[in-house]
């Protein structure tokens, strides 16, 4: 047989040099190791070229499975009937269309079959992920998946915030008035489960829900909405699938758990980091001895800087390629009212935005400044500096917001008089705006809505902000716009 001898690199990596074998032995060892038939070489070369070519040709055709977060080609997935998938075992399931092979696979990846036909609709056809058999959204091959990761430490208020956000989303509260739009939920079962665990306790029983258990499964059941907005009557609508996950805080702050149980953070399009005021030592010390702190909080809350650094570490290590918008969101903002006497409240607590005319960037800019100022006052200067350090590489732009999902502080039993969300759409609309998916209103007028429950309504100009309190030392963010890089002294 025709054979060829390939000599590897001259000196480095020759294991026999350390083993002290003779030059003759070394030569025969090398020849044995590198002796390849021409056929093998051709096969290797074809494989290599094939993989390079397919990477080039299939560019932009892959997506992440929303459940296992593996990269997949929708066109290469098997198509099955959803009803059969739910009632039969995989072993007995006969696909409507097998996962294509050979040349058919090549064309299927380039030109995936659309599931939008009468025949497929009748059979409730869905593509399934080849790794975890998750039924993929029907439009996955042609619609952008937008993952907004709402992350934070344990008990920072993520689940309550998500439950409220989903309600606001479904009511269309985030849409400018009269904007033609559609927003069906593509994962009704996951949504129902979430409603049972968080929505019902909150909105019907008026009780804060129980904490989210640690994940035990590496697949996820995200809630996915198909959002279509007709921004211009003559232009095609903006379409995207909004993907939202809820995981226990422990699965974010323990690095090994994040990589295993919340890998979607690595590829998230935008991040909302929930910053718990109760976890800020100076702030907690300034708050009155509230029953709230005895309810639902373990006292071993991580310092926000520590939680943030731990959450960010996997992103640093994964060398995230593009910076993404980051909204640092101070949760439970109703507690902030207790920090100062009624007459000296923070400006942003005295008003709430009116979203009916679209996102108000002026108002957001002033909230951004005030929240930075507040964090600085409560000794989170290092936190601000750390976020600033990652700005540009991992995150861009960055905006500071404050929300209160409940609007009230729960009592000792965890009950609340009603749910009165305040500013919950701020971070969400801002990231959508930064991702180019939602326009903001013109920068001139500012619609000032009602104040956060219980504080005096004072109509203050939204921008430029004249703080209602003396601004302590000159801080680098004075006058900064959301997302603007700060110049640290
Ligand atoms: N005062 C106040 N407390 C809140 C608010 N949202 C959540 N909490 C409290 O924070 C606790 C943890 O909330 P949860 O959403 O379960 O936190 P998660 O662990 O980050 O998902 C709840 O039990 C409530 O007591 C809020 O808007 N205001
Ligand atoms: Mg939770």
From TrEMBL:
The record's listing under Pfam families reads: DO-GTPase2 (PF19993)
Double-GTPase domain mapped to chain residues: 147-337
- Which InterPro entries has this protein been placed in? DO-GTPase2, P-loop_NTPase
- The lineage's top-level taxon is Bacteria
Protein name, as recorded? Double-GTPase 2 domain-containing protein
